Automatic annotation (TrEMBL):
The keyword Membrane does not apply. The keyword DNA-binding applies. Residues 1-19 form the HTH myb-type domain. Keywords: DNA-binding. InterPro entries: Homeodomain-like_sf (IPR009057), Myb_dom (IPR017930). It comes from Aegilops tauschii subsp. strangulata. This is HTH myb-type domain-containing protein. GO terms for molecular function: DNA binding. The lineage of its organism: Eukaryota, Viridiplantae, Streptophyta, Embryophyta, Tracheophyta.
Length: 43
């Protein structure tokens, strides 16, 4: 019952085995997130 766009999004966000959704951010990634959020805000 899904259309092609819905199927693609579901695969890319949930089903692709290369996606590691459980892995926590590294310290470097955390620092980048804080840096870019300070620069660009919540856009």
């Amino acid at each position: 019952g899904r259309n092609s766009k819905s199927c693609c999004l579901r695969w890319c966000q949930h089903l692709d085995p290369r996606v590691e959704a459980v892995k926590p951010f590294t310290i470097e990634e955390d620092m980048l997130i804080v840096k870019y959020q300070a620069t660009y805000g919540n856009r």
